């Protein structure tokens, strides 16, 4: 598969196992240079060797993304070693679902601040790229209340908001493509839910005019409520009722005939 990534330069945190490792390997298979990090030095060395075996430039370092100065220094050095940066994927999560204060602090420092610091450190390099992209790994737990609704779900929800804010703030520069990913839970096929206006959203919901999809609240029974809004090219909030065509002889509150948002039947 040719995804047009050959020659691109990607940085992935937490890339010695799981999603991060799979992403790094796929970049290498596509011909992209890759920089990775993780806490275990032996695992970093083994992963870098495996990536280099595919014939691409690969580099890595053992560090904890919760260590702000170490993370910022590594992002800068890795970008310089790769000759620039096109793609950033802050993937690491503390996976702390306990309700104790330690879990809340770990999630804040690792998931949220680890992402924010990586983005800020990479931004000077991404701004020089002609195809800059930041992919933030969130979770369905950031959108739905489940067993991980404590610190893990809370900070994944914060990352979703942060990614959306980045997309709006950087869109004016015409150099940024932002995505947030929500992989399904373990034990299910790895289907990525994304929010990218250039591609359709695969999750259940209704299709907007721009190709994305809106999730439908379960309270509505999963029905698709579509309501056109002229000039906007997308469906309105699915929770709003669908306006029906008024019956023959109907007039609005001002006595005018024809379709209207509110109407009354003519007496007699």
Q: What's the CATH H-level homologous superfamily?
A: NAD(P)-binding Rossmann-like Domain
Could you tell me the number of beta strands? 11
Rg from alpha-carbon coordinates: 23 Å
Q: Can you tell me the CATH class?
A: Alpha Beta
- Whole-Å distance between the termini? 70 Å
Helix content: 25-40%
CATH topology title: Rossmann fold
- Broad shape: globular
The number of helical runs is 5
The SS-based structural class is alpha/beta
Low-confidence stretches: 184-209, 212-243, 259-268
What value does the average pLDDT take? 77
Largest beta sheet: strand ordering: 3-2-1-4-5-6-7
Biggest sheet, open or closed, and with what strands and sense? Answer: 7 strands, mixed
Instruction: Indicate the proportion of strand residues.
Output: 15-25%
Question: How do the SSEs run, as a string of H and E?
Answer: EHEHEHEHEHEEEEEE
The CATH architecture would be: 3-Layer(aba) Sandwich
- The figure for the number of domains is 1
């Amino acid at each position: 598969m040719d995804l047009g990534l050959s020659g691109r330069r990607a940085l992935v945190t937490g890339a010695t196992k799981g999603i991060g490792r799979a992403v790094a390997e796929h970049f290498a298979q596509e011909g992209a240079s890759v920089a990775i990090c993780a806490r275990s030095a032996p695992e970093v060395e083994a992963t870098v060797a495996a990536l280099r075996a595919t014939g691409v430039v690969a580099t890595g370092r053992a560090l904890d993304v919760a260590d702000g100065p170490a993370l910022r220094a590594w992002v800068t050095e890795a970008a310089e070693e790769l000759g620039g940066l096109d793609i950033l994927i802050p993937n690491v999560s503390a996976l702390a679902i306990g309700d104790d204060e330690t879990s809340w602090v770990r999630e804040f420092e690792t998931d949220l601040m680890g992402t924010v610091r990586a983005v800020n450190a990479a931004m000077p390099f991404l701004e020089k790229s002609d195809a800059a992209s930041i992919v933030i790994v969130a979770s369905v737990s950031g959108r739905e209340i489940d067993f991980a609704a404590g610190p893990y779900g809370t900070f994944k929800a914060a990352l979703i908001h942060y990614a959306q804010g980045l997309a709006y703030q950087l869109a004016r520069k015409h150099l940024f493509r932002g995505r947030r990913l929500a992989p399904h839970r373990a034990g299910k096929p790895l289907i990525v839910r994304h929010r990218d206006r250039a591609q359709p959203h695969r999750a259940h919901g209704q299709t907007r005019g721009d190709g994305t999809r809106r999730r439908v609240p379960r309270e509505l029974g999963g029905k698709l409520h579509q309501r056109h809004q002229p000039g906007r090219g997308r469906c309105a909030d699915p929770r709003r009722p669908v306006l029906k065509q008024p019956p023959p002889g109907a007039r609005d509150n001002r006595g005018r005939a024809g379709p209207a948002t509110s109407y009354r039947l003519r007496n007699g």
